[in-house]
Amino acid sequence: MDQCSYQIYGIILSFFLILFLADVCQAQQEKVEYGLETSAYLGLSEALPFWLYANTDGRVDASSSNFINRFYSTYSVSNSSEELHFRSGFNMNGRISQQTALFFTQLFGELRYKGVALKGGRYYDPIGLNDRELSMGSMMVSRNATPVPKIRLGTAGFAHIPGTRERLELDVMMSHGWFTDDRHIDGPYLHQKYFYLKYNHPRFDLTAGAIHNVMWGGTHPRFGELPSSFSDFLRVVSGKAAIGNNAPANDTANVIGNSVGAYDFKAGINFTHFRLKVYRLFYLEDKVALRFRSPWDGIWGAGIEFDDQEGIVTELLWEHMNTKRQNSWIGDPPGRSGYYHNGVYRSGWSYEGRVLGNPLLLIGPNEHFEGRGEISNNMIVAHHIGLQGKPSNRLSYKAFFTYSRNYGTVIMQGEEPPYTPLEELRIDQYSVLLSGSYKLIPEHRISAIAAVAADIGELYSENRWGMQVGLKLDFGN
């Protein structure tokens, strides 16, 4: 039995172990929800516009028009005191496109007890304090790629710290996952953890935390099996370098594996009829970055949420991303680090052909830029505006406008002086989206969904125009 089979059987075993533990719930409250969505994604050019396929959990094939049927369901049950809670679910997709496929984007089981949650399988798990609905995507883990299967233990969201009069809350998590796709290194693991502390005041709240993701282990085509023992796992958790003859030079000189991390901060202020929020993620690629060597790289966000959720505009968000400096000091040539790229793990911070983090960092070939490994464009300055609203009780909408300046990768500047100035590499791009949902038959929860999107600029081979049309049916008790 190969390593991938062991990983899959481990996921299935964990899933059914959680199902078995759920029997102790002695059900008092049960809830079942399920639904069906069918959509056609149509492009007027060879490929779809960016916002029709980005941040769609890997469902939509970017290379052609799509016809997708999606069936999803969740089941939850709690005991009488609601201290013990079990939930499971799946999301199955059938896609007809240039890359026709039948696949799950979710298949999981979760057990919660007094604010602690154990979850196993494949499930949506974006990481970061960025806005979930209107963001261009977290630089840690967004909803751009199909979720990596994993086992996760942590708090069930923010939990009150005893003795603080509910002023302090804690959110912590650690998980272990398996990369099961076809990639440069076969069968690496995924280690993730984060720690957040939140202070609550009637008028405002402050949140600060740190995030650590590591791609490690697996079988390298030249080095063979990379460090993957339990002692190596402990070194991954603690952020230490590898030891042993089978470790690549990068792992022994720096830390084991390919690390993607961040310092993450957020503040919110409550007013009578709305709430303001700002957040800042400082991106960290390696140990040098821990000392704020490149503090300008990361994401800024600012938004306003209105208490009235049935208005023309219910939320407005602005985000700014800068990945141009890449761990270099002022005065040094930028881009020396190579975000989402790693010299050993050449498939980069990706899964099943999609970037795990912010989708503006491109994976795959680009006619303008020479890539590092699979990553072809990771030096970017972007501005993004997202807004949503509910003009009537039947109609809701969402709109995106994204502008980016793209500079490729460090290779485009040359390996040694004189370096090519970034302005000579710059390519501007605009991507827009307008999507909406209309309740056709509210009493039966049947809705029509539609979207139009466009890409204008030189980043792709041509300007792109496209649309989505579909129906969505939600059921359950």
Brief summary:
The chain is mainly beta and 477 residues long. It has helices at 3-22, 50-53, 230-238, 249-253, and strands at residues 29-43, 66-78, 84-96, 101-113, 116-122, 150-155, 159-160, 168-178, 189-200, 204-216, 219-220, 224-225, 258-270, 274-284, 298-306, 315-322, 350-351, 354-355, 362-363, 375-377, 380-389, 395-406, 427-441, 446-457, 464-476.
Describe this structure in words.
This is Capsule assembly Wzi family protein. Pfam families: Caps_assemb_Wzi. InterPro entries: Caps_assemb_Wzi (IPR026950), Wzi_sf (IPR038636). With 477 residues, the chain is mostly beta strands. Helix content is 8%, strand content 46%. It has helices at 3-22, 50-53, 230-238, 249-253; strands spanning 29-43, 66-78, 84-96, 101-113, 116-122, 150-155, 159-160, 168-178, 189-200, 204-216, 219-220, 224-225, 258-270, 274-284, 298-306, 315-322, 350-351, 354-355, 362-363, 375-377, 380-389, 395-406, 427-441, 446-457, 464-476. The strands form four sheets. The chain has an 18-stranded antiparallel barrel. A two-stranded antiparallel sheet has the order 11-12. A hairpin with a 2-residue loop joins strand 4 (101-113) and strand 5 (116-122). The longest helix has 20 residues, at 3-22. Residues 1-6 have low confidence and may be disordered.
